[in-house]
Amino acid sequence: MLPRGFVFSQSSLQDYVDCSRRFQLRYVQGQAWPGILAEPVLQYEEHMERGVRFHQLVERHQLGMDAQHLGELIDDPALLVWWRAYLGFDMLHGLVGRRYPEFTLSAELAGVRVSAMYDLLVVVPGERVVIFDWKTSLKKLPRQWFEARLQTRVYQYVLVAAGLSLFGEALRPEQVSMVYWVAGAPLEPVMFTYDRRQYALDGAYLESMVAGIVGRSSEDVWDLTADEMRCRFCEYRSLCGRGLAVGQLDEYGVDSANIAGEGVAFLLDDVQEVGF
Ligand code: SF4
Predict the structure, then answer these.
(1) Which residues line ligand 1 at a C-beta cut-off of 6 Å?
(2) Regarding the domain delimited by 7-272, which CATH topology (the fold level of the hierarchy) does it fall under?
(3) Contacts of 197 (CB under 8 A, 6+ apart)
(4) How many angstroms does the Cα of residue 21 sit away from the middle of ligand 1?
(5) β-pairing, 128-135 with 176-182?
(6) Domain boundaries, the chain
(7) What's the whole-model pTM score?
(8) Which atom of ligand 1 is nearest to the CA of 224?
(9) pLDDT in tens, 137-165
(10) How many A from CA of 163 to the centre of ligand 1?
(11) How far is 175 from 171, CA to CA, in rounded Å?
């Protein structure tokens, strides 16, 4: 049984899609398990920390702090590269609207809550809301990778379902769009538009998924993924008997089947609920 008051998120739902056993271990049983998520370990940890710092910098900038002052605080050359690329993201900086960085919304679905923590929402009053999400991936990610992520569906769905308080009036799906900015390809943001049909499909899909999860017996061992490639970036490898080989950091996020991006997201979620 899930902990009382459990709130679903794109990370937990993605875990369930990738491997229901991982969802069970992580969220139903709360099983802590030491395991390296990617190698080289030091580089991986640096990348994690850099990702957190990048999100914090952007948040402060979007709250109105001076870009030059923020830039002077950066002592990491790789982070500086990301920061400068972000400052060159004209699509964002030219968009006129109210900024809501690191903003959380949640909606009820099938008797449970599903939340979304947005890196940034830009609200153009009376017109539309644009979701921005920062991916500090080392490589360009194909559009199909984003299409396959639960994040794309959950974030847009929750925004429409719960956006009244933010927007001041009911938000139509056509007024929502989502932009992924990738540090490894900063000039090629990946954009999605939304519509009524997709909203209905997402609602049915997510409702069916959460109802299925809630209805499962916690006594059983839930299915281990059949795709053992997904185990390379999972801390439960040794617990599941799925070998000791660890995935390489530079592989993460380029294969929609691997979970490293989400593994990083999970850890960052522990820190500050940011998408990665
Ligand atoms: S090691 Fe593999 S089977 Fe086990 S929880 Fe992780 S992804 Fe699932």
Answers:
(1) 19, 21-22, 25, 224-225, 230-231, 234, 236-237, 240, 242
(2) Lambda Exonuclease; Chain A (3.90.320)
(3) none
(4) 6
(5) parallel
(6) 7-272
(7) 0.89
(8) 3
(9) 888 889 999 999 999 999 999 999 999 98
(10) 35
(11) 7
